[in-house]
Amino acid sequence: MNDNTVRPVRASDRVLPHPPRRLPVIGDILDLHVTESSQWAMRDAQKYGSIYERNVFGTRVTYVSGPVEVAAVNDETTWAKFLGVPMGNLRQVAGDGLFTAYNSEPSWATAHAILAPAFSQSSMRRYHDTMVGKTEQLLSSWAARGPGASIDVPADTNKLALGVIGEVAFGHDFGSFDDAAPHELVVRISRALKYINRAAYSHPAVEATIFRRDRNQHRDDIAVAQRLVDDIVATRRERDASGTGDLLDLMLSTADPATGKRLSDQNIRNQILTFLVAGQETSAGVMAFALHFLSTHPDVVERIRAELSSVCPDGDLQFDHVGKLRYLRRVVDETLRLWPVAPGYYRKARRDTMVGEHPFEKGEWVFVVLLQLHRDAAWGADPERFDPDRFERSRLPANLADLYKPFGTGLRGCIGRQFAYHEVLVALALIVGRVDLIEDPDYSLEVDETVTLKPRNLSLQVLERSDPVG
Asked: What pTM did the predictor assign?
C-alpha cells in the first residue's frame, strides 16, 4: 500500500472518551440518567470533553458540544436532521408534523411551504394584539388572587402560551384563565411528553409489565389529545371561517404552490399537535426561566423598565415598539443561552465523513449538547452566570453562529422562531412593567426534563406596581 492510498472511514477506528464503568454487554448503562438526560450530557461533556460517547447495550451514542465539532455536524452537505431518541418517539403524538417528520416524508416540505406566510412580519403584526390581550388576562388573574399572591410560574406561563397559540393559530379560545386548573389538552400533552422522555431508553417488555399503567395512560393521553384537536378542526369546518389567515385556515384552504398538494386531515392534526408541543411548551418554558432570572436580578429588571419608559412612554406597547426593546431581547437571548428549552438535537451523517480526527460512517448519528455548547469558554468568564450584556454587539463571540443554536439548525430549524421571540418579549415587557416579582429565598433552580425543559416547582410572589410602565 503506497502512502497515497485513502483508507476507508470505519466506525470501528473511532476511539472516544467514555464513562469509566463500562461493562460487557450492557456498556455504560450504569451512567445513564434518563430523567435528566440533557443535564447529565452537559455534565459529562464537562468531564470527558467536546466529543465523547456512551455505549448502551451495544449502541454507540456520540455527544458533541464544542463549537468546532458542532459546526462540523451542522454542515448540511455531510449531515442531516435525525429524530433520534426520544424525538422519534414524539411521533406517537405529532406524527409527520413539521418537527417530527422524517427528511424523506414529502409532507414536511408541503407543510413548510403552506405555513411559511403565517410567520411573516405582516402576520406578526396581526398577532400582536392577541399576545398583548392574553398577557393582560394573565396579569388580571394574578391581581384577582390578591396582593402578594404566590403563583405557579410554569403552570401560568403554560396557560398564557396555550391561550396565544390557540387564538392566533387555530382561532380557538381554550379559556386558559377561566379555571384555576390547567386545560385538559395541556395536562395530556405534558404527561405524554414526560412519559416519552422517561421511556425513551426502556424496553417494550418493561413498559408492558412494570410500567403497564403508565403505558396505558400514555396511550389514552395521546388518543384524547388527538380527539380534542380533531374537535377544533371540525368546529372550524362547520363555521366555514376561511380567509382568517391563521395557521388552521392556511392548512385547510391552501395548496403547496410548488406541487399543488394539500395537507391531509391527519397531517393537519399532526401540525396542530406539533405547534402545541414545539410552540406552546417551548415558549412557556422560556418565559418561566426568564421570570426566575428576573426575580433574582433586580438590576436587570430596572434596566428593562428604563428601556420601556424610553420606548413606549405612554404605556401602550405597540408592535413597532417590540423590536426596539433591545436590552429585553438580550435578556431573552441570555435565558435561551443558559436554558435552551429544546436542549439539543440529533444529526445523521449523509456519507462517510470526519468530525475532527474522528471517523463516522454514513448513517451514524450524534447528539448536539446545547447546554454545554452554550457554556463554552468562548462565551467569556463564568459562563454559568446570567449576564444579558454578553449579547451586546461588542461582546458577541466572533463565531456566534457556531456557539448559539437554541432553535436548531438548517432548513429543519424552528419555523416559529420570530413568533416565539415576539410572544415572549411582549409577555415579559408587560409583566415587568406591571408587577414586582418576589423570589422565594429558599428556592434553588431545578430543571424538569420532558422533551423540553422548564423550571421545577418555581413559585413567585407578585405585587402590583403603583407606577406601572409599558
From this structure: 0.92
